[in-house]
Amino acid sequence: MISLLYKSSYVFVLFYYAVIPLGYLTKWWVTVEKMKGNSTILVTGGSGYVGSHTIVELLKNNYTVIVLDNLVNSYSDGGCKPEALKRVEEITGETVTFYDVDITDRAALDKVFKNHKIDAVMHFAALKAVGESVRIPLKYYQNNVGGSAILLEVMACNGVKNMVFSSSATVYGDPQFLPITESHPTGQGCTNPYGKSKYFVEEIMKDVCTADPDWKVILLRYFNPVGAHESGLIGEDPSGIPNNLMPYIAQVAVGRRDKLQVFGSDYPTPDGTGVRDYIHITDLAIGHLKALERMFSPNFKSWKAYNLGTGHGYSVLDMVKAFSEVADRPINYEMVGRREGDIASCYADASLAKQELNWVATRDIKDMCRDTWNWQKKNPKGFKSS
Ligand SMILES: NC(=O)c1ccc[n+]([C@@H]2O[C@H](COP(=O)([O-])OP(=O)(O)OC[C@H]3O[C@@H](n4cnc5c(N)ncnc54)[C@H](O)[C@@H]3O)[C@@H](O)[C@H]2O)c1
């Protein structure tokens, strides 16, 4: 009798701890694999920097991709597709459907949804120049916030309620603690309209999820994306003076600009210059696929925010040194005063993405510099040089 009890408790333990989780895992895996092969993803702002790199990963994983972009910040020679997307097709050997559409144009957006059976939207389209957003805030609110609200409405009208949104570490403002976790307060210290526009859109998306439980939203809070695809065919191509450090360094290295201005050398950081969490663009792109898989899993509900960063902070001078080593040439720079709105240090706690998305950044600072340099050398004037 006792041995029978023993045996049945073994069976119970086996069932409880092995068979049920295995069944659950299989169901999850089957759903995710099915979604991968059969899903169509609409990518807004897909001819931009982050979008184009993410599309490469989507195509590599057999997703069908539809892109819409109004080309406000991406180059086209006037042909049927922006240059970045032609290069994406060259890298992957796959085709993407492209629409020259503005997300604030409700009727045009609606047509895209009517033309395709879309399963989820990856929403990159936004204006992103912090300084410009201070000068023309209404343009930023209209484009980033108004455009996102219109997109959400059109999605709902067409029964598409899955969204991965490009948010930013700027929603955390000046960090109250480091490394920054997803539970860090948001919105409080946003110093510019660009950062606020990201915060407002996050809040709108949370409200939409509260109002309708069918919605699933993942908010990806990027830290500092840098680098380029390893082929050197696509990369960051800022128009005018770069706002971000890495493209600026690369343009100095290639001789397009005289010298780098380092804003602030008296921050409370090891060398006095600002510290940021730089993340390779390919790692960031893969993070989007992991987010999509999580969103498509049967147990995902409502909304969730994830930090995409490496968890390591590098100073401006660390980046200059690393780039100089990779490019094998000195990078001319000068120290100038602090820039308004800049903060001393900002780096992520990326452990939630590791736990729940099964994602970690694997590329280091050397990879970031090498791939940026490869892209810059092959395309000294960006996409226009082709
Ligand atoms: N690159 C970064 O450092 C960074 C950091 C955090 C968050 N983000 C966010 O990630 C997203 C992508 O950034 P990116 O670096 O690829 O920028 P990007 O400017 O290279 O790409 C954005 C694309 O959106 C398009 N676009 C803008 N407004 C549009 C509109 N109304 N309708 C249709 N298309 C429109 C632009 O033409 C551009 O091709 C943005 O939402 C940005 O705010 C970027």
TrEMBL record:
Keywords: Carbohydrate metabolism, Galactose metabolism, Isomerase, Membrane, NAD, Transmembrane, Transmembrane helix. One of its GO terms (biological process) is galactose catabolic process via UDP-galactose, Leloir pathway. Its EC number is 5.1.3.2. It catalyses: UDP-alpha-D-glucose = UDP-alpha-D-galactose; UDP-N-acetyl-alpha-D-glucosamine = UDP-N-acetyl-alpha-D-galactosamine. It is an enzyme of class 5 (isomerase). Residues 42-372 form the NAD(P)-binding domain. The chain crosses the membrane at residues 12-30. Its cofactor is NAD(+). GO terms for cellular component: cytosol. Signal peptide: none annotated. Homodimer. Catalyzes two distinct but analogous reactions: the reversible epimerization of UDP-glucose to UDP-galactose and the reversible epimerization of UDP-N-acetylglucosamine to UDP-N-acetylgalactosamine. The reaction with UDP-Gal plays a critical role in the Leloir pathway of galactose catabolism in which galactose is converted to the glycolytic intermediate glucose 6-phosphate. It contributes to the catabolism of dietary galactose and enables the endogenous biosynthesis of both UDP-Gal and UDP-GalNAc when exogenous sources are limited. PANTHER family: UDP-GLUCOSE 4-EPIMERASE. Belongs to the NAD(P)-dependent epimerase/dehydratase family. This is UDP-glucose 4-epimerase. It comes from Phyllotreta striolata (Striped flea beetle). The lineage of its organism: Eukaryota, Metazoa, Ecdysozoa, Arthropoda, Hexapoda.
